[in-house]
Amino acid sequence: DTFIPPREDQVLRKEGVPSPAGIEPTWREFVEYLIDTDLGSYGDDHWMPYYLYCTPCSVNYTIIAK
After folding, report:
1. Per-block average pLDDT, block size 10, for the chain (66 residues)?
2. Where exactly are the transmembrane stretches of this chain (predicted)?
């Protein structure tokens, strides 16, 4: 199968989200952004740390079974 990208008129954009500037960050800039940004409050589930989803220590287990 060959991937055919959508035409510009087929792409839906969310209101209020600016179009890309056309300038991609370097790898270093991207990593610094990840380190410097509080991704837990960013609002995008794809960037949230997994430990915020998987919290087995928060459960008060009364039975452990096989």
Report:
1. 76 67 84 77 70 78 85
2. none
Structure tokens, 40: 């837990």
Contact 47, 39 (CB under 8 A): yes
CA distances in angstroms from 20 to 5, 23, 24, 34, 39, listed in the order given:
17, 8, 9, 18, 20
The pLDDT score that the predictor gives to residue 42 is 60
Q: What is the rounded distance in angstroms from the CA atom of residue 1 to the CA atom of residue 42?
A: 36
Q: Write the CB contacts of 34 (distance below 8 Å, at least 6 apart in sequence).
A: 47
Whole-angstrom CA distances from 33 to 15, 20, 40, 44 are 24, 17, 13, 15
